Amino acid sequence: MVVGVILPPVAPGDTGVYLKQARLKGHDLGIVGVAVRLTAAKKFAVAMSAVAPTPVRLLKLEELLNAGPAEPELAEKAAAEVPNLIKPISDVRASAEYRLHVAGVLVKRAISQLLAGGGK
Question: Domains along the chain?
Answer without folding.
Answer: 15-22+31-115 (3.30.390.50)
